[in-house]
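To fix ideas at the outset, we first show an illustrative case, written as a sequence plus integers encoding its fold:
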Amino acid sequence: MDMQQLIIKKRDGGELTPEEISWLVNRYEAGEIPDYQMSAWLMAALIRGLSLLETLAMTDALVASGTRLDLTSLGRPVMDKHSTGGVGDKVTLVLAPVVAACGAYFGKMSGRGLGHTGGTVDKLESIPGFRTGIDTAQFIRQLAEIGICVAGQSSELAPADEQLYALRDVTGTVESTGLVASSIMSKKIAAGAAAVVLDIKVGRGSFFRSRGQAAGVAHLMQEVGQARGVHTKAVMTSMEQPLGSAVGNSLEVLEAARALTGNGPHDLEEVVVKLASVLLPLADLGWDEEKAAGEARQAVTSGAALAKFRQWVEAQGGDPGFIDDPERLEIAAYSAPATAAGSGYVAGIDAMAIGWAVQALGAGRRHKGEDVDHGVGAILAAKTGDLVEAGQTLAKIHARSQEQADTVAARIAAAYELAPEPTEPQPLIVG
């Protein structure tokens, strides 16, 4: 086969065979296809789209590039979750201990930040000592011992996806429905999950702007999951504004810890409870969605979820002391307020603009393999529907220099839309 011909075939709208997809993935992983050619093919796939056959073939090729975990020895199904990416999305940090505290196994392979969105691995690594490089033996052992493990992309599981994931991040090809579905589901299948709940973000701060597009990718991932023996359900949640108040790695970890004490933002709690209500009935606990939602809330109010969070952090080498003493997490020293130019009700917040502004501080990546700055970010002081006065603080920016803080403060202030009358808030659970 010839890579140039495969680029042309996809560019012209052709459908690659499973053999061609397998060859392409294998040769790229082996370093025989350069980034510039794979980038061209990814862009053609974004523009032309991938068929269900191509998406299944891509998923299979990514899974086949490594090993597939067998978790049946645990005796119970392992639950998993994935978000398609949003701004301020720290749901996994709260959902994982909630699910585990309810008596289910929660095992997940997580990725790093993509584009304007933050990554769970980057957030976890802002905790001093926390290890996301977990081998398969420890992954299984930790699940058996405490019921929870969240690891970074393993070199053993779907390793080709890690390479493609990083390349898509810096070539403007993240939004391809087929590539999103195959990337996500290959990791879920390889990691041995029995059931997965997908948090499909829709709105200005997500990769999917319309409900139709979000529903399309949700349906495709469900088809892939079901075809490969993974019970897959999807929930579409709004990303018209950032989720919660904190945007940035350490700041989001602190907000997640507060949520586990019952003092977190209402919107974050609503998403966590909804996802738990969909996921827990698949864990052989005999619960329906109403029972699962109640148990998820009780896990927080009883303190069981917070205790599980501490146990999880310690099991992966982290210091949970930041839960009681937030100053143990690194927060950038320079700060500046983003202030309202006038008075009115917050009618909207451009979550995408917030995401890119925080990425510019160093919280995300501009180049493949680049390190992130865990200490920078923003804390929103006003959300949609709030009444603000001219000069009032809309958000507080944490940066590495005063000049950087001031520059990003202006960008974030510009992301706020004010109106003379309050607007009806959009539902958080879209479908």
Q: What stands out?
A: The first helix runs from residue 3 to 11. The radius of gyration is 21 Å.
